[in-house]
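Before the break, one more example. Copy the sequence into your notebook; we will annotate it together after we see the structure.
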Amino acid sequence: MSIDAAQESEPQAYWSLRDAVSDGQTAVFTGSDTKMVNALETVLRESIRQQMVADVPLGVFLSGGVDSSTVVALMQAQSTQPIKTFTIGFNESGYNEAEDAKKVARHLGTEHTELYVSSQEAMAVIPKLPTLYDEPFSDSSQIPTFLVSQMARRHVTVSLSGDGGDELFGGYNRYLQGHQIWNKIRIIPRPLRCLAAKMIASVSPQRFDRIANAFSSMMPNELRAGRAGDKLHKLAEIIDKESSEIFYKSLISHWKSPSSIVLDSHEPLTVITDNSQWPDLDDFILQMMYLDSITYLPDDILVKVDRAAMGVSLETRVPFLDHNVVEFAWKLPLSLKIRNGHGKWILRQVLYKYVPKELIERPKMGFGVPIDVWLRGPLRDWAEELLSESRLRQEGYFNPLPIRQKWDEHLSGNRNWQHHLWDVLMFQAWLEAWG
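Here is what the structure looks like once it is written out:
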């Protein structure tokens, strides 16, 4: 911002992701795969080298996934001493990445610290969330993020993270599965898709589950694992959309009609719903990656990490978001990011120079806690008090009927509404603390 005492001054953006995307797409790199992999390694090494400069103890979060493992590998390659890595572990199956992270740390020779946290210790963080975040913030991975930050702060003052890799290099499942679904359904006339959605929604998830169990040997793998009914009902929510933009919005939304939940409200125009704010991108995957980069990344991921870390006086740094890395990534052809049904292809090739492929290749797990189970068990009374119909009516912010319906369905075990309920619960907990 330039200040002129003689006239009113306005802040000017000195760098724009939209401009970087537009410039990158008009000057896409050409060259061999090997050349591009080596060029990415160079730009990442330089970003990480700069962010390793510190006059206080330095470390890095390690989940064992592609992004954090790449940061750790390039840090260790530029350090004469073992770098400090930190991982949180959980005993609940399906939520624990600690063993995978330990294998990566052992291979790279880092000074690794892991802490297994009980469900009681994790749930003890929940009362702190309204004051830690200062606003209703409902990404439940905020809990393990705070715990790993708290642990790291006992050893270091600065920690690097691997955030940003998914958005830049095509790592989220929606870039693969969402794109595939849209390409298949868009050729079907919309009235037929609407009819199919209504037919699916008319059958309860439980009945679909019973059918799937009876014919499990004949079902596709994606329906055989987990709740077939829930997955089919989620499919019904998206297949009737008239455009890729609305399809994407449905993919990323919990409550599909927020104005029906929040009393006397309407959803404001945002960058997601106003495509005049988008760069000119002719590929649906690129559109999703751009929108995630200007919404989900700064408004969820970076808020989550920054406030959790600063709550324990830990500084976090994000080498993937160095502007040189971002600009380089948007000049890469999409075929170097998504290839053979897998995201982050080029980033994996850099990582495989340092870590064996077999230590990395596994299903994407995410960084969460079993909120769905906790809400039916030890958190049930806490949630029931915040979601009581009389309380919701008295406070006057929410329509209690759809919320209570989802709460009852969740408690019965028939549906998993953890994300929808956590959204409301975080608002209620914040209101209780600050209202």
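The domain at 17-171+289-359 is CATH 3.40.50.620 (Rossmann fold). The CA atoms of residues 59 and 159 lie 5 Å apart. Try to locate both features in your own notes.
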